Structures are given as structure tokens and as C-alpha cells.
């Protein structure tokens, strides 16, 4: 029997992941041992401190370019950049999750087990404090995402996928109001997510089979082996293509790309809005981080084979997102379709070759994350006695009622529409430029055409808010407490700064745009 | 030439003014108006100083400034003005204070914040100056798009009937054009070696196929903006719904961005493609002249009528540009200026009529000249200027365009001449139905119709009338500035004027 060799671990490089997962475990203990009235404060503080500590470690590690934990994790430029992005955006999302000033008791249900729509349910909706388990769940999810973007083999990637998905399924079900919708969303997300995971796992198996039999190497699912196998494997390329396709399905599902997008509107609408923001920002970063690594590192040799297929997926995603966004009447569903269309633009960036494509995509992820979190922050504020008023007709005349928040939301919508001097424009440029440079003119033209379509729904909201007269049922905009205000202002300011002076972040992204292979 | 950074200061100054005005208390509307007016006068003074220090015989681009912005993409804040841009900047600087003065009471009827209205006008001035002053393609694009936002809110929040529809249509049309241009801008950036500097890009050789696609991307945006037939349908809606002051800026200046863009970007950057597409562009111009003039004849809404006349005039400008002779080019640029003055005046006067009557329909007027003789006289003058009567400034430009075109393309020039006749028809018939003839008894019951022009309104129309007459008799100061720039543009596309064969057709107006 051969002796088991322990892989060497670079603890400093792994610190962000370990901090997040460690604090998540600590959060579970807090639930058990800290009195109920203190839990909210303790949990929120813990989670924010953990994110801060992890972010500090990411910054300290900024120059690391290593593979550690026995080929399982790569801590290189893209990993660190995306981990930093996830942590910053997660901190904003945590502020939204932790807010209890907008709604008494917070956005989460007090007792998830109470039957929805029962008398008990109505009582708990009236202001009993929400569950504090959401914090450990969120921290677990963040930890999983940090692993996901660093994973250097497909099995680690799969485990990370599950680590961040399972808490998200739960979080989706925990809305304080409209609980049936929320539970339905969680159920759909869970079932479809489980299918996607199964596809992914099947893909891993096929790829493993494909890598067997390269001269001088064992079979494996680490990216270096796969990369070598793409050019050297004697196995049938059918295995490779089938495996790649199945892997892509799993990843594109998380990225909300068509035709694997159908869960997105329902889940975005049903989930508690802070969680929707968290998913729209952080899950996108994680999913695209993984897509970038899989296709730029593992399957780099098969670029000629996957580019047309992924390109078609990108075009379809942009079209579906843009066209269906036009027909939406619910602001959360509208942003869900907009997020699908944005997944399409991001895929254009994934297909753009070279450093510039990579750095452009990473820039886009950060810029979009900030804007979308700010957008969902505004949505949490527009409410009546039944909770958030998300139907578009209710937003009529909002600009008259509260010009300040309507102004902020208008700015974010203009950013989504890609008007210059917002991050929406610079980020589109950041992905379209390299894509055109790489010869994908058709993707850029599709992107531009769908942007035109997509501008219409955004503009419709602006018209609703400013040019319509306020009606009887126009809801009030709640003046937010410190936490939501902070998240909102960070998001809006980042949208402005990244639109006016994107150079520093672009420099950072360009400097980080090298995978360790 | 002075080293003062005119262009960047001119761009930023209105924005600062807008911020000041926007933060004035809402219940002090008079103060906001005064500050906005004073600020726009300040910009005007600065522009006059710039005009004086421009050296007509000097470099093509003057007042060049460049500051790094996004080095990763080769983007910089580069400003520079040639003669064409200088004339347009001057037009903006003259029109904005007059528009502010003319809009003194416009915002009050809308129940919305008055300071915000004037702040939006100043923001619009900032973006308009920026778009003409930019010498970096990226910067130009930024201003080109951002310009939509203040105009959108001016139409949508302060406009009249159907303002929402008009605002959205305006925004979407322009955005669609802008996004086509974005694709072309990115394409130009890629083939041009990752720079946005206009002068560097004008040296780049582009393969024929690519050049045509890029030209189309830019041209589409500019044709929508100008607008040329068949991309014009947004203008009557926007012009009809916008408050008169904003409408004057919309057709007087904003739309010139389209024709300016063709002169500054399409022709010099894509010379071969410009020649290849020229017959098509000429055809669009000629169709626009006749078609829009016919539609104008049939309009019953004053503002929509003026909008249609503008489309016809833009047809003339388009013909002048794509005839590729110095005369026609100079005529086109001069037309851009004169049309801004004449149509600006017409829009403002029509706005005064409409605000008095409370209706924009021609059929609601009739014999108004008996009640408000001075206003009717000004309307008549503005109409005559608009139909290019000799002695008014637009005549010179229209004449230059026609003879410049005639030397190279007789059929186009002949068909375009029909536009002059139609112009007489729509203007004179409009004037006749509104101010001449028997008095419409309904008019006497409207209080407003008993007030003729007051001092403020006289102060608005007087400078414009003076400029139209002055430039009608003595256009030399302007043509001196325009000519070298147009000459340089013609050199860029490698066209020389045909030698006069019979007789001596001297360049008129020189």
C-alpha cells in the first residue's frame, strides 16, 4: 500500500476561503449559543468582519501567482481579482440583507416552517424579527464562490458549485412576504440547479475518460491535464465535445445564459430582494469566473470548436434577454431579463481572445455588480403596506414623490442602457472592443442591436417615474437606514466613477489578466 | 492665437452654471432665470473672445488641448476647433441666451421645477459645445449620446401635447443611431491601431470593405440625427411637443450635429466610402427637400410645420455636403449657421404666438396681424428668411449650395430648386392663414392675443433679425472662417473643384 502523500498547502493564499468558511461555521455556533436578541447584530458584524478580513488577505496576496493544494486551487491574477470583486459586492449585499430599517424585522421570514398564508404567517410578517440563519448561509455561499473562481480542477469546481448553490436555494425561500412565490422560486431554482449540477458532473466524467491514455500522464480532471489532452489525447473527440457541452450547460445555467435561463425571472422575482441582488452580482461573478477559467485554461486548445457554439449561445442570450425584457410588467422580472441580456454581453467578453478580452470581462463583472446591487437596493425602498411594490404601473409618478431616489434609479437605468459617463458604457466598450479586435464582429453587431432593443424597457421605467402623473396607489419611497443607504450610494458612486474614470480599475484588471496554467 | 484653453472652459462653464442653477431653491424661480441668463451671457462673451482670437488663415485646427483620460484605450480629452466647429460654437453661444430669455415663462405652465428647466438648458449647452469641440472620436461619441439626456427631459417634462411619446421616440431614434455609431467607433478604433485621436485616425488607410461598413455606421447615426429622409419621423413629433425654446435648440443646433458629423468624421476619415455612397446620400437629400416641403405645406400644427421645413433644409445641407465642391460645401456650412438663426427665430416667434393663443393649430388663428402687428411682422420676416429670400442670410447659403452642385451634378441641382418654390408655398400660406385675412373672431376673446411683443421678446428677436440681415448682405467674416476648413475637407477626400468651362462663375459671396 502506497503511503498517502499530503499536499502542501499555502495557507496565506487560501486564507480568504478559510476565513469565510470558518466564520460561516462560527455563525452556526452563534445561532446555538448567543441569545436571540443579540444574534442579528453579532451575526452581521461577524459576516462583515469576515468579508473585510478576507478582502484584506486578497489584497495582501495580490502578487501571488501559484497553484496550491495539490493542483486543486489556482491563486493567480484572475482568481484574486474576482475574489476581490465577490467580496466587495458581497459586503454590499450583506448591508442590504442586514437592513432592518426599511421593513420591520428585515426582509426575511421569522419562521420558515410556518405555513404560508396562514394566520401565524400574517402575524410573523407583521414585524417579528427575521431569521438570522441567513448570515451563515450567505457566508457559506461567499466561501463557495471564492473556491469556485479559484478551482483548478473540475471536481473542486463541482464541490464549490454545490457549496455556494445550496445556501442560495435556501435563501431564496426565506422571503418575509409573498412566501408562496418565494418558496416556488426556491423549488424551481433547486430542481433546475440540481439538473444543472448533474449535467456538470456527467461532463466531468466524460472529460475524465477523454484524458485517459495520454502518453506519459495519468488521467485527471485538473486543467493542465485537460489542456494537454485536448491536443494529445488518442481518445475520440466526441468524448471531448460531449463533455465540454455538458460542462458548459452546468456553468451557463449559473450564468443565466439562454436557453438555460428559464429559472432566472421566477427566482429573481420570488427571492427576497437583497438575495436577488446578491445573486445578480456575486453569482454572476463566480459563474463567469469559472467559465473564463474552464474555457481559457482547460479547453484553450479547442477554441476553434467551442467559439461558434458559445457565440450562438451569446447571441441567443442577448436576444432572449432583450426581447423578453420589453414585455415585462414587474420591475424585478425586468431586471432579471436584463441580467440575462448582460450575461450575453459577458459571454461576448469570454469569447474575446487574449488579455484584453479577459480583463474586459472582469471589468464588466465588477461594473455590472455595483449597478445591479444599487438597482435592487432602490427596489427594496419602493413599498406600500404589503411590502415592495414591484409592479411597474405602481412606479408611475415616483419622480414627483421622491425625486432623489427616482433620480438615482434613473441614473442606474441609463447605465444599464449604456449611456456614456456611466459604467454601463465603459464596460460594454471593454468587452466589445476586444471582441471586434479578435474578429468577432458578428457578436458585437448582435450586442449593439440588442442594446437598442433593451434600451426601450429601461426608458419605459424612466418615463413611468418622471413623465407620468402620480396615481392614488403610487407607493411611498421609504427613507432607508444607514445600511441600505450605504449600499445604494456605493453602487451609484461606483457606477459613476467607473464610467468617468475607469482607468484605475482597467489597469488593475489588465495587470491581473494572466492565468497560471 | 491665444493659449487660453477656450474649448474646455467653454464646455465646462455651462455645466457649472447648471449645477448652480439646479441647487437654487425651487421657490425662487426668478433668481434661477437670472443666474442662468447671466451665465449664458458669460459663455457668449467668452465665445466672442475665442472668435476674435481665431486665426482664419492659420492652422486648420486651433485651440487644441489634450488631457489624458483612459490611457488603456487611448482615449483623451482632446479639444480642437476648425472653422466649421467655430461657427457652430458661435451659433450655440448666441442662441442659448436668447432661448433662455424667450423661455422665461415656459416652465411655469408645466407645474414642474423652474430652476431645473434652466439647469437642463445649460446642461444641454455644455453637451452641445462639447460635441462640436471634441477632437477625439470617443469624446465626441460621449457628448453625442449624453446630449440626449437633457433634451429627453426637456421634451418629456416640459413639453406639450403627446410629450411622453415624443420624448421616448426622440431618445430611441437617436440611441439606435448612436449604437450603430458605437459599433463603427469600436471598429475604427481596432483598425486605427487603438487610438481615438482624430488626427491620427485621419491618416489611417482602411481596406475598402471595412471603410464602407464604418462609413455606414457613422452615416446612419448622423442621418438619423440630422435628420435625412427616411429617418426623419421623430423630428416633427419632438419639435411639435418640445417647448418652443428647446425646439429652437433642437432643430437649430442639435440636429446640426448630424451634418457636422458627416463633414468632420464621415468625409475625412472614410474618403473613398464617402465618394462611393455620395449618389445615395444625394438622393436622400433631394427626396428630403421635396418630400418634407410637400408635407410642410399640408401641416396644420405650427411647430410641426417648422419641423418639416427643417427637414427640407437639411436636405439642402446634405446635397451641399455630398456635392463635393468647395462652393457647395461652404454653402452647406453657411446653411447650418443660417438655418440655426432663421429656424431658431421662426421657432421662437411661433412659440410666442402659441403661448398667446394657447393652441398650435393654424386653423385656430386667422388675421392675427390685426391684433399683434409687430409679432406678425416678425413672423413674416422669419418666414421670408426661412424661404431664403435674397437679402436674408439663408439665401446666400442656398444659392451657394445650388450653384456648387450645378457645376458637378445638374439634375440634382435642378430638382433641389423645386424646393425653393415649395418653400415659398409653405411659408407664405402659413403666414397668410395665421396673420393675414379676416380676423378670426375667436382670437379677440383670448387675452394673450391683445398683447403685442413686450420688451423681453423684442430683445429675443432683435439680435437674430439683425444677424440674419447682416449676414445676408455681408457674409464675409463667416465665409472667411469656413472656407479654409471646407477646402481642407475637400482635400481630405481628394476632390478638386471642376474648372469653370463657360463664362466665369466666381465663388459667390466671397
UniProtKB/TrEMBL annotation, chain A:
Membrane-topology annotation of the record: Multi-pass membrane protein
Function summary: NDH-1 shuttles electrons from NADH, via FMN and iron-sulfur (Fe-S) centers, to quinones in the respiratory chain. The immediate electron acceptor for the enzyme in this species is believed to be a menaquinone. Couples the redox reaction to proton translocation (for every two electrons transferred, four hydrogen ions are translocated across the cytoplasmic membrane), and thus conserves the redox energy in a proton gradient.
Regions that span the bilayer: 12-34, 41-60, 80-98, 132-151, 157-177, 189-214, 234-253, 285-303, 309-327, 334-355, 361-382, 403-421, 441-467, 479-501
Pfam families: Proton_antipo_M
Enzyme Commission (EC) number: 7.1.1.-
Gene Ontology terms: biological process: ATP synthesis coupled electron transport
Keywords for the protein's UniProt record, in alphabetical order: Cell membrane, Membrane, NAD, Quinone, Translocase, Transmembrane, Transmembrane helix, Transport
InterPro entries xrefs: NADH-Q_OxRdtase_suN/2 (IPR010096), ND/Mrp_TM (IPR001750)
Gene Ontology MF: a single term: quinone binding
Domain of life: Bacteria
Residues covered by the NADH:quinone oxidoreductase/Mrp antiporter transmembrane domain: 151-452
Family the UniProt entry places it in: Belongs to the complex I subunit 2 family.
Catalyzed chemical reaction(s): a quinone + NADH + 5 H(+)(in) = a quinol + NAD(+) + 4 H(+)(out)
HAMAP family on file: NDH1_NuoN_1 (MF_00445)
Protein known as: NADH-quinone oxidoreductase subunit N
Organism this protein belongs to: Micromonospora acroterricola
Record-level GO cellular component terms: endomembrane system; plasma membrane
Location in the cell: Cell membrane; Endomembrane system; Membrane
Subunit annotation: NDH-1 is composed of 14 different subunits. Subunits NuoA, H, J, K, L, M, N constitute the membrane sector of the complex.
Automatic annotation (TrEMBL), chain B:
Membrane topology recorded in Swiss-Prot or TrEMBL: Multi-pass membrane protein
Gene Ontology annotations for the cellular component aspect, listed alphabetically: endomembrane system; membrane
UniProt main location, coarse: membrane
GO terms under biological process: ATP synthesis coupled electron transport; electron transport coupled proton transport
Gene Ontology MF terms: NADH dehydrogenase (ubiquinone) activity; NADH dehydrogenase activity; ubiquinone binding
Keywords of the record: Membrane, Transmembrane, Transmembrane helix
Protein family (similarity comment): Belongs to the complex I subunit 4 family.
Annotated protein name in UniProt: NADH-quinone oxidoreductase subunit M
Natural source organism: Micromonospora acroterricola
